[in-house]
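Sequence in, structure out. First:
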Amino acid sequence: MTTRAWSSPTAPCRRELLGFATVGLLAYAVDLALFTYLRGPAGLGPLTAKALSFVAACSVAYAGNALGTYRATRARGLRPYAAFFLVNLAGAAVQLLCLAVSHYGLGLTSQRADTVSGAVIGMALATILRFWGTRTWVFRAEGRVGSWTG
């Protein structure tokens, strides 16, 4: 019997999660910095500033995932970017839904409650959705089922 190094079957998934998280943090930084600039010195309204910063952050996240995390999947063309953008819109909707349910449905109207529901719980659920949607619909690998659990 030969000795060989056993690699964990979860190692690729861990690398994928780490890459996805790193790219997500970079995209978040772009979103926050651009929103702050557009809202402040550029003098744009909050919705316009947020829409522009969201599109820029989605583009950074797509590029980072396409060139880094999922570079082996060879996603090309406009379809993967459009699917990625839709997945990110769905994630944003999840965050807004968590905030709306907490604030308007449950009557938890403090700034702390809004932060926890939108930026903590909503962001966590949205990140799970984005990860699943990105690997299932955008960067599909041969032989891999869409779920990261199987």
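Second:
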Amino acid sequence: MSEKTIPMLPCRTLQPVLDFYTVLGFEVTFQQKSPNPYAVVERGGIQLHFFGMKRYDPAESYSTCYIRTDDVDGLHEDFRTGLKAAYGRIPARGLPRIGPLKDASHGVRQFLVTDPGGNCLRIGQQTSQDHHHRPAPKETFSRALHHASLFADSRDDPAGAAKIIDRTLRTADEQPTPVQLLRLLVLRADVAERLGDDETATSALAEAAAVPLTTQERKSAHDDLERLEELRG
């Protein structure tokens, strides 16, 4: 016996969605206009189906699916390369957009992609057999990063993440390590961009770029430094 689950995702019109997935390296393997708009895209073992809905609002979409891979870094890089070639930049806010690659607290390394139809793909690679979220750290700045990341990515609440980071950075009696400060500032810039707050994003990026790091610290903050350069570009 063999089964396969295939997500069917809504969109207002098919063509912008199909064009987007073509940029990501997918092939359109089926398309029809009647009796209802419907299409299929495929890349390797990933197959996604889309159907058109005239009154559908992509900005209000909650449609999502999870894609497991054994090369999340490779997919993330391929998608970023395709998007930059097509758009001249890597879209980080609005529709469509792609998020940063992160090690999540529930044993996966993942990133999020949201297409022009508002459908969110969570693409991850398993890094642990334990899929429960790890308890939040007790240390002030690690705890803030933990919760802010959950708000920004898992809950799609950038405003909530911004409040956590701003409150933590105002802490007077404690100081973050350079890596913690970098990570907080990069995430603050990230969520500011999503909120359309360009002034805060620019300020946070400048502060993050000025944080002095040793060679070892730069290695441990590799993903954050990559995101910093992406946001600055």
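Remark: The longest helix spans residues 178-194.
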